[in-house]
Design brief:
The chain is of the alpha+beta class and 154 residues long. The chain folds into 2 domains: 3-81, RimP-like superfamily, N-terminal (GMP Synthetase, Chain A, domain 3, 2-Layer Sandwich); 92-150, SH3 type barrels, CATH 2.30.30.100. The protein is 29% helix and 42% strand. A hairpin with a 3-residue loop joins β5 (114-124) and β6 (128-133). α1 (3-22) packs across α2 (52-69). The longest helix has 20 residues, at 3-22. It starts with a helix and ends with a strand.
Length: 154
Amino acid sequence: MSRKETYESRTEELLMPIAEAAGVEIYDVEYVKEGSDYYLRAYIDKPGGVDINDCERVSRILSDALDEKDFIQDAYILEVSSPGLGRALKKDRHLEKSLGEEVEVKTYKPVDNSKEFSGVLKTYDENSITIEAEGRELVFAKADIAVIRLALDF
C-alpha cells in the first residue's frame, strides 16, 4: 500500500465514528499534492446535503483525532466539504447510488472521435460502465475512463 493509500485509509478509519456521530456519511477521502502543498480532503454527505456547520463540526473533531494519532509525516491542509453537485463517481458505491442518473464520462483517448459523453448510467461491473445516450448503449472499459461524474442539469 502506498503512503497516499495508507493516509487515506487510516483517515477514513478515524473519520467513521466521527461521521456517524455527526449524522453524515463519508463520500471520499483523498490525500493529494497540489503545487508545493499537500491536502487531506474528506468529503461528507447526507440526504438533503451537508451545510457549513456539518463540515465545521466534522473538521474540528477530525483535526483533533489526526493530531492525536499523528501518522501523516508531511505538513498538510485539512479540508472537509461536500462532494458537490457534479461529484466524481470514483467508487462502486458511488456508481450504485447513481444508477439511472445523468452522468458525464470523459475518456483518456477518443472513442468515435470524441472524449466526452453524457447519458444515463445504466449498469457497471468491475471492468466496465454502460450509459444510454441518444437511444443507444455505450460501454466503456473503466481503465479508459479519465473521470465519470454526475451531470449538472440547470
